[in-house]
Write a structure and sequence with these properties.
The chain is built from two helices and 13 strands. The protein has 290 residues and is an alpha+beta fold. The chain has a domain of 197 residues: Immunoglobulin-like, CATH 2.60.40. The strands form three sheets. It has a six-stranded mixed sheet, with no helix packed on it. A five-stranded mixed sheet has the order 5-4-9-10-11, with helices on one face. The chain has a two-stranded antiparallel sheet with strand order 3-6. The radius of gyration is 54 Å and the shape is globular.
Length: 290
């Protein structure tokens, strides 16, 4: 009986041992446990890099060497060639009739740099500088030497009917000198000069022709000599001009209805034989001479 008790106790002890859970001792856990490492792999390169992260290409942009060109410069227009065509030496403020010098354009171009010289007064000659206007061959230009009306307008553009004023011409160019002073005389010298001092045309007037100039016109001798040297005024025979080789204006008197007119269509001989005095009422500013 005693043996049976001991056997049962042994069986019970064995069963108790098998059912016990043994807790591991943390202090006895080995710190040398080998750490498991994941294999190192290179990240896969995507086939296409998103555009937003594509770095810009670092390169020096090709620069085209510009062709060496001379900058274009506008050629200034040629200076027009004018001829003195008609002159009126008298004015009448009541009739609104001015003194004038009319020109005919022989060659088209610009009036810029052209000057009209009226040499009656040796100490204070009248000089008019044309504005920069383009003019056509055959065009008439009237320089009115007084302004008696407020409607007188300088025609510097293409509209030749712009100006009012007595004797302004709707088919010719009218230019006006401000003021009412007398500027042109029956004994006078008028010439046209460019910016380089070249005389383009001239006319010499004398109311009382003689072999010598009057005292107040003594300076005319030097001027006519210079005009002769320039080939712009001479005697009818082609020699050095004297006072009686001027255009005789004694027939004009004090009337505004006569003028000194060129024989249009004739060769310019630069002498008095190119000119005549119109009969009363046939002065024609801005139109062909009659």
């Amino acid at each position: 009986m005693k043996h049976v008790f001991i056997f049962c106790l042994l069986i019970f002890s064995l069963l108790t041992i098998c059912n016990c859970t043994v807790e591991p001792d943390q202090n006895n856990v080995s710190t040398n446990t080998e750490t498991r490492k994941e294999p190192t792999q290179k990240p896969e390169t995507p086939e296409t890099i998103p555009p937003e992260i594509i770095p810009p290409e670092t390169q020096t942009p090709e620069t085209e060497t510009p062709e060496t060109q001379t900058p274009e410069t506008e050629t200034p227009p040629e200076t027009a060639i004018l001829q003195i065509n008609e002159l009126r030496t008298e004015n009448d403020i009541n009739l609104k009739m001015t003194e004038y010098v009319e020109f005919k354009v022989i060659q088209a171009g610009s009036l810029n740099s052209l000057n009209v010289h009226i040499m009656y007064d040796a100490l204070n000659p009248f000089i008019y500088a044309f504005p920069a206007i383009e003019v056509a061959t055959g065009e008439y230009i009237t320089l009115h030497l007084q302004t008696f009306e407020s409607v007188c307008v300088n025609e510097t553009g293409d509209n030749l009917s712009l100006s009012g004023g007595y004797e302004s011409c709707p088919v010719a160019r009218d230019l006006w000198v401000e003021g009412t002073a007398e500027l042109l005389h029956k004994t006078d010298i008028v010439y046209l000069q460019d910016a380089n001092g070249v005389i383009i045309d001239a006319v010499v007037l004398n109311e009382t022709p003689s072999k010598t100039w009057n005292n107040n016109q003594a300076h005319f001798a030097d001027i006519t000599e210079n005009l002769f040297i320039a080939g712009m005024w001479r005697s009818s025979g082609g020699s050095k001009p004297a006072p009686f080789d001027a255009v005789n204006t004694s027939a004009i008197g004090k009337t505004t209805f006569k003028s000194v007119s060129r024989y249009e269509g004739r060769e310019n001989t630069h002498s008095a034989k190119d000119w005549y005095i119109t009969t009363s009422g046939f002065n024609t500013p801005g139109k062909p001479n009659q």
